[in-house]
Amino acid sequence: MSLKIKWNDDRVKGAATAVVLITRFRLAQGHWGGLIQASLVEYREDYEGYKARHPTRTLAAAKDSSGLVNAQRREFYEKLVAAVETLLARVERNRTRFSSLIELDNYLASQLKSFE
């Protein structure tokens, strides 16, 4: 039996929010490059650690870029947040469905590849 993930499933918004939050955390630590794929891997492999590091896991909370002191990283992050919001709106508008979490992750990574 295949898994069906509809556009309005919490897992879609949850994965997109995780990408944003983990990327912000990595940028604050000084990481640069390969952020999207690494964020998705971390989210799937260490969900409990993700929950502990990010107690407020909403897209509204993810918009806060005040923790990033480097202006270039803050600008990069703000563009990522805007791109994720646009991506989520497009998924909802097109009523996109995914057959697995891997397919969802691959979709997010491919759509956000300009931020790698």
Average pLDDT: 90
Unreliable stretches covering 5 or more consecutive residues = none
**Overall body shape:** globular
What structural category characterises the helix and strand content? mainly alpha
Q: Please outline the major beta sheet.
A: none
Give the secondary structure arrangement, pairings included:
Layout lengths: L9 H20 L5 H11 L1 H7 L5 H4 L8 H24 L6 H11 L5
Provide a descriptive summary of the structure in words:
This protein is mainly α and about 120 residues long. Helices cover about 65% and strands about 0% of the residues. It has 6 helices and no strands. Helix 1 crosses helix 2, helix 1 packs antiparallel against helix 5 and helix 1 packs across helix 6. The longest helix has 24 residues. The relative contact order is 0.23.
List keywords for this structure.
single chain; mainly alpha; globular; 0% strand; 116 residues; 66% helix
